[in-house]
Amino acid sequence: MDDIDVSVCVPAYRAHSEPNLATLAETMERALDGLKGELVVALNGISAAGAGAPAWAKTVDLGMNRGVSPGWNAAAAQARGNVLVFSNDDVLLGQRSLRLMHDALVAHEDAGVVGPDGTRWDLSVPKHLEWLDLSERAPGEVQECDVVSGFLFAVRREVLQSLGGFDEAYAPCSMEEVDFCTDVRKRAGLRCFAVAGVETEHEYGISVSRPWKLIRHSGRVELLRSIHVRNVRHFREKWRGVV
User: Fold this and answer.
1) Max alpha carbon distance in the chain (Å)?
2) How many independent structural domains does the chain possess?
3) Is the pLDDT of residue 228 over 80?
4) What distance in Å separates the CA atoms of residue 116 and residue 120, rounded to the nearest whole number?
5) Residue 204's pLDDT band (cuts 50, 70, 90)
6) What is the CATH number of the domain that holds 209?
């Protein structure tokens, strides 16, 4: 599609210190390592200037904070690349990081989702069990996992489209990448891989917030804990008898 190799899709809902959207954009060229890329920002209740989007980025305005999955879907709908990379806005991309993920998808036809951090889960609970250790693997080598962490991962456009995008029932946040990786593995019959050598700097934000933090989204205010409990329940009901 056009001549874009990689579209980096980022939802943004608040202004914050570095690392942020501006520094992510600054690190894209080194991360692409010669590939042609673009940045697509979903504005979740914030202006492009407030989010720190560079002038060359493509933006789509959701009007309010609708959350991660709607932001990913909105950005993907405007993206032109055949490889779609979904990233938080608090990530610094290391040298060749986007190139390594792009090449892993190209090299492995059975790859559905790839990214730097792979995890194993007991999906019947669901419960995170462990992180994969890739320290002994050469850059670009892959190791299969259950879930690729949601702060940075890549998927081919046709895979995302075949699954109908991300499940927006998980909005505004929590469990969306667990659900998508499960969808890729169980419904599309593809595999999830952690890719060695994908260097990043990431400031965990909402995922490590206190459970009593209030989140404003979709015209209401909700506790982070209640959002997580609801989304875990949705995951169990959706995948009962499958995982």
Assistant:
1) 48
2) 1
3) yes
4) 14
5) low
6) 3.90.550.10
